[in-house]
């Protein structure tokens, strides 16, 4: 039991190192698109959730959120106030809800994929299908919760920062989901399936040996 726990902690440390490396590498973890940032940092969180369970997955999601907070505080875009209470632009400033948007969706990225994977395995014992659904679902958890949280808590300020009317803001939100969120989800589904199939096979062999 002690060896298993130590092994899990080593794996968590490995995933934390990947998350930090991606976040610290320009144009890799956070990809600037001018009006927003795309990301692939959710992928190691999703994989960690499936391999290590929701507790460690939630911790990895917290690390993901922490890198977002740091990045948006010290390397801000015009809409960074929605992710950090320590940044403001004009009359728009971050607050407590910035922390909610920054951390809650990312923590859930480390929880939801585990249950999607386990649930799909019970419905149909097919690793490729279960891993694909977990990868896509984990990515969409981040995108949908973040973008809808922005609309709910910072609608007026976000519309002002993007120079659009509030009445058309949700259309802008849907556009961002379509342009960023859907490709991110597809990539997450593919990479989660490819990487987890190998890691799960290795893990199962290690447990049997």
TrEMBL record:
One of its GO terms (molecular function) is transmembrane transporter activity. The keyword Ubl conjugation does not apply. It holds the Pfam family ECF_trnsprt. The chain crosses the membrane at residues 12-33, 45-70, 96-116, 128-154, 169-200. Keywords: Membrane, Transmembrane, Transmembrane helix. The keyword Transmembrane applies. This is ECF transporter S component. It comes from Acetobacterium paludosum.
